[in-house]
Amino acid sequence: MFREGLLVVVSGPSGTGKGTVLSCIRQKENRIKFSVSATTREPRSGEVDGVNYFFKTTEEFEAMIENGELIEWVKYCDNYYGTPKKYVADTIKSGYDCLLEIEVEGALNIKKIYPDCVSIFILPPSFEELRRRIESRGTEKPEVIEKRMEKALKEMNYVDRYDYVVVNDDIEKAVDSIRYILASEKLKFSRNRDILKTIGIS
Amino acid sequence: MFREGLLVVVSGPSGTGKGTVLSCIRQKENRIKFSVSATTREPRSGEVDGVNYFFKTTEEFEAMIENGELIEWVKYCDNYYGTPKKYVADTIKSGYDCLLEIEVEGALNIKKIYPDCVSIFILPPSFEELRRRIESRGTEKPEVIEKRMEKALKEMNYVDRYDYVVVNDDIEKAVDSIRYILASEKLKFSRNRDILKTIGIS
User: Fold this and answer.
1) Residues of B in contact with A130 (CB under 8 A)
2) Cβ of A187 and B165 within 8 Å?
3) A160, A164, A167: best mutation site toward chain B, by most B Cβ within 10 Å?
4) How many CB atoms lie within 10 A of CB B33?
5) Relative to the CA of A197, which of A45, A118, B53, B165 has its CA 20 to 30 Å away?
6) Is A181 on the interface with B (CB under 8 A)?
7) Which of A 130-169 lie inside 8 A of B, CB atoms?
């Protein structure tokens, strides 16, 4: 059967509970590795190079762009952030699934480059729950909350570009859903074109 | 989320262990109903109308053909066998998955009529195991065994027409694989086009 890992792209606006779902997967699933981004921002206390980020100088990062070593990148608040091709490729080749947490635009770019990737959009169970989750984030002013709501709702319109949709009304169920998706994707004939050869039939 | 049942087409030549896998699913999964065929052959002792088969007279069966009430049908040893549309449609509508065990030609016909169906091909783990399973079926003469092997190998060439492939090297694993496929299919965006409306977002 299919022996390479999958490239898995997961998006979900703030308020969907994506963070909790993914950290649950990170703890439980030892066949899934999370993509490590490259960045030019300063390491914060406790952050480890190669674990939290690959920390790069601006010159190094720009050389990576130049050499086509990034799947996608953005400049945000004067710092670069990007996804190194090599980490993703190495992970997949070694048989681990590589999970990329990324916002919608980045996800669409990745789909163009890796049409075989599996894309999953995480949604909140309801409008009210989305608002509740965004409000409960802390001490934000009403304007900030409205802005976040607006952004979340706007991002959700991209759900139709994704392969799968997981409604996060229960963390365990959402985690299982993602596991089922990955297991099932590996059983697709399109990912097992030499299956008859593999089992010694043809 | 997706509330209708799926139409699931399962094929696998003799020697793949398909029978055992499916009877395991039949026992364990109460959200899956098995399609009941219509036939003109005489009921055998213990067979119940509407459970094992829908038993029909030749006139009734031919009327069903005439009225387009069958998804597919064959005549075999002077008896008709066919899949009634209504049973499949009612099952799916009521939210149960409807599993159709069918040989390759029938499966391809069903895919033409129901492009949304999920098709799964069950394979043996190896050539040797296929032979062992076919031989262990009983007292068959060598010619019969060779014929069965030939037929099985020929049928396996159709694996590329199926969505998924499940290698049956372990019954429990094969059953789980089928469960993952069905769970994951229901999470596809293409089966949840009104998801934003459903969760009250748009």
Assistant:
1) 201
2) yes
3) A164
4) 19
5) A118
6) yes
7) 130, 153, 156-157, 159-160, 162-167
Domain ranges of chain B: 1-31+96-202, 36-94
Show Cβ contacts of residue B63 under 8 Å, excluding neighbours closer than 6 positions: none
pLDDT, tens digit only, all 202 positions of chain A: 668 999 999 999 988 999 899 999 999 888 999 999 999 999 988 999 998 899 999 999 999 999 999 999 988 889 999 999 999 999 999 999 999 999 898 899 899 989 999 999 999 999 999 999 988 877 678 888 898 899 999 999 999 999 999 999 999 999 999 999 999 999 999 999 999 999 998 8
**Torsion angle of the four alpha carbons B25, B27, B29, B31, in this order, in degrees rounded to the nearest 10:** 110
Q: Output the six-digit token pair for A21.
A: 């779902």
β-pairing, A97-101 with B53-55?
unpaired
Give how far A38 is from chain B: nearest CA, Å: 31
The fold of B1-31+96-202 is Rossmann fold (3.40.50)
Homologous superfamily of the A36-94 domain (CATH):
Guanylate Kinase phosphate binding domain (3.30.63.10)
